[in-house]
Design brief:
By secondary structure, the chain is an alpha/beta fold. 47% of the residues lie in helices and 14% in strands.
């Protein structure tokens, strides 16, 4: 079903985005990989993805905080592949600080990348999805799209917003054979979380291992990380025929985090 489909995954040079790209590569989709790194620095990743798919692999370096770079990325995808059939809005960054000292530019960047970029990519991709009478949009939100944590004002606001945006897109496209859903991961061991573990270890004088256990103990009852591939498999499910009538929903993969 995904063979020859064009799949754009934002922020796909590492972590969850890269695992999603690998999942779709095994389905022989055409991949549009995005990140902020110059193409030369991702050549190993791109080669590995090319080895896994019979489809094409296109890399677009674009800083999705900038609307003009989002537009160039989508234009490049359209000119090289004709359409974006599956859009996975995954790119985001984190910043941890009490609100009184939360830097304004960090707030702006996280809202731009974690929320506004999904608005812009969806707006640009939807006309061709409608034309083709098929499309799938998946927004990678977070457990932080459902519940909050202190010191993560921008991230929590962006992720709650992403779930709201998901519902609106779903309602507006419900009759067009297009679905839009959100996935809400708990802790996944990627660079985004490793940085938080390192900072907590440094702040509290803990070992990395102890800081890891504390991070899990605080939020994730399973005491295990979600695997990046778990999110890839959920994304693939949302593009399968069994999910044709699933739209406007959120899928929580969080080891029990939000059950508390
Ligand atoms: P990551 O740091 O490993 O990867 C982030 C990706 O985004 C990278 O490819 C990076 O190049 C890209 N990126 C960063 N800034 C960018 C920009 N300005 N423009 C374009 N791309 C940019 O992070 P991850 O943990 O894999 O996170 C992926 C998604 O999953 C994010 O939306 C994150 O909020 C969400 N998430 C992660 C966790 C977790 O525990 N890791 C939990 C819940 C949700």
């Amino acid at each position: 079903m995904l063979k020859n489909k064009n799949v754009l995954i934002t922020g796909s040079t590492s972590g969850i985005g890269l695992a999603i790209a690998e999942g779709f590569a095994y389905q022989n989709a055409n991949l549009i990989i995005n990140g902020i790194t110059p193409e030369d620095n991702c050549s190993a990743i791109l080669q590995e993805l090319s080895n896994k798919t019979k489809g094409k692999v296109l890399y677009v370096q674009a800083d999705l905080i900038q609307v003009c770079e989002i537009e160039s990325m989508i234009n490049k995808a359209f000119s090289e592949l004709g359409s974006v059939d599956v859009l996975i809005n995954n790119a985001c960054i984190q910043h941890v600080s009490p609100i009184e000292s939360f830097e304004n530019d960090k707030w702006d960047q996280i809202i731009a990348l974690g929320l506004s970029s999904a608005f812009h990519t969806s707006k640009l991709c939807l006309p061709k999805m409608r034309e083709n009478n098929w499309g799938r949009i998946i927004n990678i939100a977070s457990a932080h799209g459902i519940v909050a944590s202190a010191h993560k004002a921008a991230y929590v606001a962006a992720k709650h917003g992403a779930i709201g945006l998901t519902k609106v897109i779903a309602l507006e496209t419900a009759e067009a054979n297009i679905t839009c859903n959100a996935i809400c991961p708990g802790w996944v061991l990627t660079p985004l979380v490793e940085n938080q573990i390192k900072n907590n270890a440094e702040k509290n004088g803990w070992t990395y291992e102890h800081a890891t256990q504390e991070l899990l103990r605080e939020k994730q009852p399973s005491m295990n990380f979600v695997k990046p591939d778990d999110i890839a498999q959920m994304s693939l499910f949302l593009c399968s025929e069994a999910a044709n009538q699933i739209t406007g929903s959120k899928f929580v993969v969080d080891g029990g985090w939000t059950a508390r």
